[in-house]
Amino acid sequence: MTNLTRSCDLTLHIYDSVESIDKDVVHVMLWSQAVNSKKDNHFSVMKILEENSDDLKRDYLSSINEIGNVEVNDRSFKSRLSLNEDFSFWWMSAMAKKCHHSTSSHVADTLKIMAFASWIQNQNYSHVELNCLDNRSAIVLGLKLKKIGIGFSRGTANLAKRPLRRVLLSNLVLPHFIAAFWSLFRYVWSRRVLIGVGVSKWSNALSDSLIVSYSDNMDAQYLAKSQFYSRYWETLPETIESLGSHISFLHMYDPDINMSNAKEASEKINALNESKDRSQIHTSLDSFLNLNLVVQCLFDWFKINLVALRMRKAVSKSCGDSWLLMEEDFYKSFFGFFGLKNLLFYKLFIRALSLTSIKDKGFYLQENQGWEFAFVDAWRKTGHDQLIGVVHVPLAYWDLRMNFDSRSYVGTYPVPLPDIVGVNNRDSLELFKEMALPTNVIPVEALRYLHLLDSNSPSLQITPQRQRILVLGDYMASKTEHMLTFLQTCPSYISAAYELVIKFHPNTQLSNINVGLFSYSISDSPIGELLRDCDVAFTSDSSSAALDAYCKGLKVITLRDLSFLNLSPLHKAPDVYFVTSRNELIRALDEAANHHRNAILPDYFYLEKTLPRWKSLLTGGESASKII
């Protein structure tokens, strides 16, 4: 890019938040906070990002696709990572996953830097002074600014050269490699009691349907009676069985309050198989572990290590300045346990699906996790029939796991997709239309939101003088802790007007709770019951439960962390509060005190208790052939 001559000597100062701005600074860019002032020379990089979201999202997805297709000696990275003639290990990597709220924390900063670099080219600033960001992000930003002829410094320390510490760390392949071996040993050892559990029944079962599902979120009352009922699937298994089918369940063991360790999971799975319900068979993916399979996995892992070593230079060149941000994903994918675990899952799926009868239909929760692509390929390689991915929560615009460059769907080693994608709401249907997936996308009832059809009448007597805030915990413990810490900042008159009802995520329970002056209780009741008894919902910006509360008429207050992209399904809802500061939270709670509850139950979801859309799909009816 040609260097530009700046017409004036202006310096732009970048800060994380308003509180950190020096008094004599005039021109400000906020990196992790919104701009609340009306000053013309105060900007927010998140606002710039949102205003140019479509272009930036497309460019980022394109760059990821180019990494997978980078070539050395006329062979692409994807092809060198092939596990068979159709499937590449690339799709199980963190780089392809693009999960910025857990796996790949750099994604938000990468997009912010892209947005900022594009924006500042049309401004008159000749210099940028950075007062936030970690070393890697700062270096990447500095390199991009240098290319467009803008000076850059970090306080008084110029960052033209890369620190020695980063040079050394970028070559530490061995620690990732050793940690992967140790983690594999710990994983297999911790799951050893599950080996063989349910395998005999699985192998002998004549079921014609299969459901792959996480083991968490089962109803505790049903489980106590050795009956299966999952909040992920609700009444769908019952509907499948009513049509004369039998189901085999393959559980992805995920510790929660019902099964806190593998021994408990083993006992619960055995109990489910001994129940009177003979139309179901249960086992876990870990039940298929054995020494030979682990050895095979390690053999293939070594080959992937060699490919990554050979391709590292080409991949880093393809990433350009952003390599400093993306290299951690490269190492964890091709040398770390993240990639090794996904490869192990692939081997386990191949073995599990080879040991059971051919299934007419398979179902899984589609979030585009790495193991899902392994399952899709294993399903096809072992000769099973129709596969249905169930998108069980509304798509968020910035959930990049669900988005790919259009070129990823064609050519050699395309992204593995199910035969049918089932979506539960109109907005998601529209987003999938924009993606132009080469597969059927069909509207089906929103299984986990069926409780919205239940009565909205409170089950408890609510005292008008003391309203209830339902605190809906996040999957990530750090986000839940941040929410509780944020509530501590409320003044006494707010804490006197409200009491808290805290519902943790099934997989993330906190023991040390401090919410300041608020009185609180902890509940594990179904969310439908809690929503009837509360007035305000307080959520993180990645919680899909915010939508449950919104549809039930609660005032929703979402804690927005501008270090990350907004994953809330309500990010465009005009009457939802997104708060980033103490004052915004207080203002939202003050206004919520006068809120009159009014259940919405919009046309947003497909909601019918009898599941007519699902039945049509299961029986091959008209909606089952709808292609968008």
Task: Give a structural overview.
The chain is an alpha/beta fold and 628 residues long. It is built from 23 helices and 20 strands. A seven-stranded parallel sheet has the order 10-9-8-11-12-13-14, sandwiched between helices. Strands 17-16-15-18-19-20 form a six-stranded parallel sheet, with helices on both faces. The chain has a five-stranded parallel sheet with strand order 3-2-1-6-7.
Short descriptors:
alpha/beta; single chain; 39% helix; 7-stranded parallel β-sheet; 628 residues; globular
Side by side, the strands of the main sheet go: 10-9-8-11-12-13-14
Q: What is the strand tally?
A: 20
Distance between the termini: 40 Å
Using the CA coordinates, give the radius of gyration: 26 Å
Instruction: Estimate the global geometry from the Cα principal axes.
Output: globular
The parts where pLDDT drops under 50 for at least 5 residues are: 156-170, 459-464
Share of residues in strands:
5-15%
Give the structural class.
alpha/beta
Please sum up the structure shown.
The chain is an alpha/beta fold. Helices cover about 40% and strands about 15% of the residues.
